[in-house]
Design goal:
mainly beta, Immunoglobulin-like, 5-stranded mixed β-sheet, 24 strands
Length: 274
C-alpha cells in the first residue's frame, strides 16, 4: 500500500461581518470562474471561511449570501498561501427598506390638474451624508408616482408648478417608514393677482421689489393685463413697454429703483405711455 499526500491546493479566504461589525456565521460563499464548477464554503462562528481546490493564479468571482442581508460580490485570485490577492472580506448590510410616494397636483383656481409641475421628494440622512433627492414631472392628469424611495420619517415634498402658480412646500414631514405606498395629494393655491391697464403698451413686466424678474405678459387689445398666482406675502414692481421700446414704471416712475411697490391682490395698476 502506498501512502498518498493530499494537498488543499490554491484557495481564497476571508471574513464576513455585519454592518455593525459583528462576525456573521452561516454565510454562504460561492466562488465561480469561467469553465469551472462553482466552489462553496460557509462561514464559521467567527465569520471566517476558506475555499480550497482552486486553480492557482486564476481570478474568481466570490459571492457572499445570507438571508436578511444584501448579497455582495468581489473578485479574488486563488493562491497557495495567504496573500492580499486571495483575501476577500465582506461587510454585509441589511437590504434598504423602500416605499412608494404618489399623488395628484391640482390648482384651487379651477380645481384643474396641474401638468408639468416639478415634484421634488428629499430627505437629509445626516452624519455629513449628502441629502437624497428625487425629481419628476406630473403627467397630463397632474399625477406623480415615485417608486423605491429609501425609507425615512422626514421626507420633504416641494412642488414647482409651471406658469405663475406659487411654489408649494408641504408643511409637515412625510413619514416614509410605513412601507408600501404613501398617498399625498397637493393643492396649489390660486394666489393673488395684480391687474390694470397699460395704455399704449405692448407688454407689461413684473418684478419683485428686490429687483428680481418674475414674468412678462402681453396686453389685451384694450390694454388690460393681469398677473395671477402671486404670493400675497411678496411686494412687486410693474413696468410697461411700448411698441417703440419706451419703458414706464407704475405711477410714472422712470427707473426700477424709483418705482413704487405694489402689493399682490392690487387692481387698477394702470400705466400710460401716451
Amino acid at each position: 500500500m502506498k501512502n498518498v499526500s493530499l494537498s488543499k491546493g490554491a484557495f481564497i479566504y476571508g471574513n464576513v461581518q455585519s454592518g455593525a461589525g459583528q462576525n456573521l456565521k452561516g454565510v454562504t460563499i460561492v466562488a465561480t470562474a469561467a469553465g469551472e464548477d462553482p466552489a462553496y464554503a460557509v462561514t464559521d462562528a467567527g465569520g471566517d471561511y476558506a475555499i480550497y481546490g482552486l486553480v492557482a493564479g486564476k481570478t474568481y468571482f466570490v459571492f457572499a449570501t445570507k438571508r436578511g442581508y444584501e448579497r455582495q460580490m468581489k473578485s479574488a485570485t486563488a493562491a497557495v498561501n495567504e496573500e492580499v490577492g486571495n483575501l476577500a472580506d465582506f461587510d454585509l448590510t441589511p437590504p434598504v427598506a423602500l416605499f412608494n410616494l404618489s399623488g395628484t397636483v391640482t390648482s384651487d383656481c379651477d380645481n384643474s390638474a396641474v401638468a408639468g409641475a416639478k415634484v421634488i421628494a428629499s430627505y437629509s440622512p445626516g452624519a455629513n451624508n449628502p441629502d437624497y433627492f428625487k425629481v419628476m414631472l406630473t403627467d397630463e392628469n397632474g399625477d406623480f408616482a415615485f417608486s423605491n424611495l429609501p425609507q425615512n420619517a422626514n421626507y420633504k415634498l416641494v412642488v414647482v408648478p409651471p406658469g405663475n402658480l406659487p411654489v408649494y412646500v408641504h408643511s409637515t414631514p412625510i413619514d416614509g417608514t410605513v412601507g408600501g405606498t404613501v398617498d399625498q395629494d397637493v393643492v396649489i393655491p390660486c394666489g393673488s393677482s395684480i391687474s390694470g391697464t397699460a395704455v399704449g403698451a405692448g407688454y407689461v413686466l413684473l418684478y419683485k421689489s428686490d429687483g428680481s424678474f418674475v414674468d412678462f405678459i402681453q396686453t389685451a387689445d384694450d390694454g388690460t393685463y393681469s398677473f395671477d398666482g402671486l404670493s400675497s406675502a411678496t411686494t412687486y414692481k410693474v413696468a410697461a413697454i411700448g411698441t417703440d421700446g419706451t419703458v414706464k414704471w407704475y405711477n410714472g416712475k422712470d427707473t426700477i429703483d424709483l418705482a413704487d411697490t405694489v402689493n399682490a391682490g392690487s387692481s387698477g395698476i394702470d400705466i400710460s405711455l401716451q
